[in-house]
Amino acid sequence: MTAKATRAKPHIQYHKDGSVWAKGQTTGDVPTGYWEWFRKDGTRLRSGFFEDGKQVGEWTTYDRKGRVYKVTKMSPGTV
Known about the structure:
0% of the residues lie in helices and 59% in strands. The chain is an all-beta fold. It has a domain at 31-79. The protein has a six-stranded antiparallel β-sheet, with no helix packed on it. It starts with 8 loop residues before the first strand and ends in a 5-residue tail after the last strand.
């Protein structure tokens, strides 16, 4: 019997007003790959990568004009 490969599926979450709050991919219910979060006005708030449901690498936070506000390097074990 061979193991069935699990594919990442697109995932979108919405604010109560219907605008996009977050989008990325999940494997099962676990976030994986590149994700972005948005303010209600549509400007990007934060972005970064997940591996096995954990934040990895650099995560970028943006100001209200879409400019980089800060970059945080996620260490192993950082949630």
